[in-house]
Design a protein that fits this description.
Strand content: 15-25%
Number of strands: 10
Order of helices and strands: EHEHEHEHEEEHEEEH
Distance between the termini: 5 Å
Number of domains: 1
Structural class: alpha/beta
CATH topology: TIM Barrel
Strand order of the largest sheet: 1-2-3-4-5-6-7-8
Length: about 220
């Protein structure tokens, strides 16, 4: 089974090239201003052209309105919207229709109860992502990229009709275990290839992608 990876929160050309050259299937660009990984539409346009055809360009949004999304799409050639907020199924379906792009809805997981609403997304999204839900008392928590993991075994017995990614607390040392326990075929990483929030380490990107190749 081949495992494919998305490197998220890329914000400089060196990191994008490391992801592309290392075999990443997707690159992720963050359009959530409070994030230390956020990029502007103009910056995203410059980074997106570094990824050749065949490497998916994913834009991460958090409860963004139409104007904010349109401003990005006017400059950056995205292939998919990753919705990482509290967007409703109706909002997901509406964006999918209005933009004509694929949409990935992020499900934040702390325990089994968080998976119960997942079927609500089957008819409105193209992809799912399962990421760790930060605890309520976590200071300065972001919607994602908090270096937190959840219990990967929670996903093992599910049969989702949509392709899905595993995210949250992954790194080169644990990705093989995460894949084995969850059954994931796609993995997403951000903080696990950084020296500090928002600063990607090209060598960590390369090592993670090598580990993903071995895990598959």
């Amino acid at each position: 089974m081949t495992i494919r990876a998305k490197i998220c929160g890329l914000n400089d050309p060196v990191a994008v090239r490391a992801a592309v050259d290392g075999g990443a299937a997707f690159i992720g660009l963050v359009f959530y201003p409070p994030s230390p990984r956020a990029v502007t539409p103009d910056q995203a346009a410059e980074l997106a052209v570094l990824a050749p055809a065949g490497v998916g360009k994913v834009g991460l949004f958090v409860d963004a309105d139409d104007d904010a999304i349109d401003a990005v799409l006017a400059r950056a050639p995205l292939d998919m919207l990753q919705l990482h907020g509290s967007e409703s199924p109706e909002r997901v379906a509406g964006l999918r229709t209005r933009t004509g792009l694929k949409v990935m809805k992020v499900i934040k997981v702390a325990g089994p109860a968080d998976l119960e609403p997942v079927p609500d997304w089957y008819d409105v999204a193209d992809w799912l992502m399962f990421d760790a839900r930060p605890p309520k008392d976590m200071k300065n928590a972001l919607p994602g990229g908090n270096a937190l993991a959840f219990e990967w075994m929670l996903l093992k017995d599910w049969e989702f009709p949509l392709p899905w990614m595993l995210a949250g607390g992954l790194d080169a040392d644990n990705v093989a275990e995460a894949v084995s326990l969850s059954g994931a075929r796609y993995v997403d990483i951000s903080s696990g290839v950084e020296d500090k929030p928002g600063v990607k380490n090209p060598e960590k990107i390369r090592q993670f992608l090598k580990a993903v190749a071995v895990a598959g």
